[in-house]
Amino acid sequence: xxxxxxxxxxxxxxxxxxxxxxxxxxxxxxxxxxxxxxxxxxxxxxxxxxxxxxxxxxxxxxxxxxxxxxxxxxxxxxxxxxxxxxxxxxxxxxxxxxxxxxxxxxxxxxxxxxxxxxxxxxxxxxxxxxxxxxxxxxxxxxxxxxxxxxxxxxxxxxxxxxxxxxxxxxxxxxxxxxxxxxxxxxxxxxxxxxxxxxxxxxxxxxxxxxxxxxxxxxxxxxxxxxxxxxxxxxxxxxxxxxxxxxxxxxxxxxxxxxxxxxxxxxxxxxxxxxxxxxxxxxxxxxxxxxxxxxxxxxxxxxxxxxxxxxxxxxxxxxxxxxxxxxxxxxxxxxxxxxxxxxxxxxxxxxxxxxxxxxxxxxxxxxxxxxxxxxxxxxxxxxxxxxxxxxxxxxxxxxxxxxxxxxxxxxxxxxxxxxxxxxxxxxxxxxxxxxxxxxxxxxxxxxxxxxxxxxxxxxxxxxxxx
Length: 465
Description:
The chain is mainly alpha-helical. The chain has 18 helices and no strands. The protein has one domain (3-464). The chain is globular.
């Protein structure tokens, strides 16, 4: 059989065709998103007309990303459990998983929202964000941060729909929702008339809250009105205490993996703000957007594979998982080379992208970001496979150690005169170490599954967790 015949035979499978369709759609939607992302930087620069204010905005958003882990892994836990239940035709379990997750999420988020606003009211936010009161007053900064915090809390409950959409193998819908969320603030800053910095901050805050929550609300209404999920509408009747406890226990593993990953990779802006300056965050954002483009494409394109791997595991199609994993290694290596080649033309790209606001590229910094971008790509691939198999031990240990050591090591290097790019270098090295261990672990697990040929391995067996 020729290679072309093998490929053709592969995509005769309905699941594989569905996977390919959503990957293609993901690339198309992400292409539009990347255009918007690149277009947004000069617009935001003009909107605030102050590098410190813009750096503050990016720092606040990066910190809010931390709040997304407060679901204790319930979203990701639902994704795996619901995928398994649907693959096995267990409709009653699907109803219990969905209802228990929604109600558990609401019970978790309401007290977090109330306590969080109280803490923010007592905190000296200007000192924390290293922003002068003459630029943004304490009252305005508290109002902006509190509103954004409450908006993100609301999105927790609404974002459960994302996990459900992933579980039913319709990931491109989530990509479309993300595109809308990105487009709404961009459209606003494009159309907004000039004002002072404080009014601009509050206005953009309100727009951001609407952009995050409105698409999720609409998607939720449409999804549960759909034939596939009409019988799974969340209700107290189908909320089960034991199911909720089981989901929380299962989700906690995702929670710890998430929190340690955030500690490692989502603290860059605040560390740069505190150890260097908020204006350096803008420069960091320029390099970061440029060199994480390929990684972002990989993350979006490979998102459907998470649930697909979970489904293959439930149906004991271990050879499919092995074949997919090997193919992803080759793609990752090619993308890594692409990241390194991007260094050669990054000044040309920046000049076209930012025009009058273009920075002078510092090539050692660009090389550090290319290395980071390459390790990030491998990280995406390995994490998708591991999460699909609910195998999170390596992530928890590696991210935990890397995150714990980050602040003291970067602080010592900064005190010693290192530039802000040392933050990125640290991340790249830490992720490279993780990737090395994760490759060995995944290969070992998949080989064991293939060799047993499903004779002793079950989806819920501790042996594959």
